[in-house]
Amino acid sequence: MRLLERMRKDWFMVGIVLAIAGAKLEPSIGVNGGPLKPEITVSYIAVATIFFNSGLSLKTEELTSALVHLKLHLFIQIFTLAFFPATIWLFLQLLSITPINEWLLKGLQTVGCMPPPVSSAVILTKAVGGNEAAAIFNSAFGSFLGIVITPLLLLLFLGSSSSVPFTSIFSQLFMTVVVPLIIGQIVRRYIKDWLERKKPPFGAISSSVLLMIIYTTFCDTFSNPNIDQDKFSLVLILFIIFSIQLSFMLLTFIFSTRNNSGFTPADTVAIIFCSTHKSLTLGIPMLKIVFAGHEHLSLISVPLLIYHPAQILLGSVLVPTIKSWMVSRQKGVKLTRPTV
Q: Where are the transmembrane segments (predicted)?
């Protein structure tokens, strides 16, 4: 079993490399409007597949218990939509004196204002074996919350405002997240015994969908003409983005593993990914609406186009390490638990 699991991890890492290389060689295939039609296959079909898969594999009692874990939900949402953007704003006050392109810096602020994604945090939490139910709830709830809060944050930090089509975005989220999850739970009731007996490869399905998301996201990134401009600023922004992600992942890890935190190791995994990931699916349409007609929109969008694949790449690389930590902590808890 360990050998098979190791082989799956190795093949997944090879898949990531091939996906990025393929996107670099021919980004036009997976770009929006290209042959793969990611605006449909990823935004709708892939996301719906992820949540149907989660609804099918997740025990109903686990999902129900996750809904009442208010402390965990508050931690993730406050970190994502308050602490994250405020910290980025303070950090950018220091970076404003550097020669980094000012519109790329403004783009970095927009990243901080974005809601969590509806897919990558769930997939990575599931890959580690963390609290998938909590990840699902916070990804979905954070996305709905972000529809209202993100435009307000952009107005607060950047002074940009516009009317956002709340109804269409809400309906898309409802149809791609809530409905597939409910259908998956209903189907699970009828084939529960079969699922427990056959144990379908839910992890492999999620990994395959994630590779598709990685590929199409990098296609979008590499097809942006501003990626090849101002290389000095871009290299610095890339370094800053990875530094921010690692720092915030470490910060959430420290906060959620304190003795009096009340979080389990599985909760910590969900917190790490849900608190630090940002949505490209909701982010780019929002930027196009909020900064409609802005001459520097493409430059403002670049940090988010970099952040999204970077968070998936970094998260995927860290999955084995985080999983080893979680398993060792869970074993430690079992060993120290008093016998009756």
A: 41-58, 70-91, 103-124, 136-157, 169-190, 202-223, 235-256, 268-291, 297-319
